[in-house]
Amino acid sequence: MAARFLVVAAVANIALAYSNTVPVVAWSSYSSYALDSLPAQLDSTSHSVSLLESILSSEDICSHEAIVLVNQPGLHASDLRTLSPSTHIARSIVSAPSSRQYPYLPSHSEHEYGLPSIAQTVSAKCGSRFLQYTPGQDKVSLQPSSKHVLCINMPHLDKSGQARKSTMAQHEILLEHELSSLASVFPNHLIIFSGSPLVSHSKRQVPDRPILDLSASDSFAPTNTTLPAGGILKKYQLLTPGLITALLIAFFVLVPAVMMGMTALASIQNPIRSDVSKSFNAQERKNQ
Known about the structure:
Layout (H helix, E strand, L loop, with lengths): L1 H16 L3 E8 L4 H4 L11 H9 L9 E8 L3 H5 L6 H8 L2 E9 L4 H16 L2 E5 L14 E6 L7 H25 L3 E8 L35 H4 L5 H26 L15 H6 L1
Parallel strand pairs: 2-5, 2-6, 4-5
Antiparallel strand pairs: 1-3, 1-6
InterPro entries: Big1 (IPR037654)
Main location: endoplasmic reticulum
Membrane topology: Single-pass type I membrane protein
């Protein structure tokens, strides 16, 4: 029983260790020192934002005609593993002269909002044209005669189960169309595809925006009583790491200990009674 608990606890610790990580994959159409100089595995102090800054601060980063930063909130390493080998992302990584894959990087709380700032810094450094847009929603005009730094914001990936796999396939098709168009305009390109922590729209913090907008004409905003679609796990966060640990301890330590104690108590038997019968006469027994 103790060995079983240790195995379950080890698996739980591994799952919790990967709970706050995001994947980052990068590839280039030409040989890139920015990618080739990176180690195959990063140390524990590296996180997603520091990796992006390390790549984009390389000396040869400005040699690319286009630098494409793709960000998808909610993306997991398992989502990339479920993609078919025939998809654009998989084929590009395999055939790229330079590529790197980091499936589990500690996420940074300001990844989603810090990405445009990093892209603008690279744009100013290389004298490139900066564009930020969402594929399928925003129209952009490219200038083949100038270098570009593009920040592509993919839709949030907040599904689960089979719906998540289907949504990821649709997003990959959308991204494939966008990257193929960019590759035809800019043959020498560097693409960085990364995930970021998924933050609900209702709790998202907007930079440079006051907490209370006193300029609004209405004193109170209308109350939104519409509940989000989905089951109870979609509406509320029930299974927290602390609750999961408490349940594991309760079911694999406390419950077995109580059951063993009850079994031990039930196995206790009364000693054989040694009471002398009332009809017993010691004098008669002696005369016999």
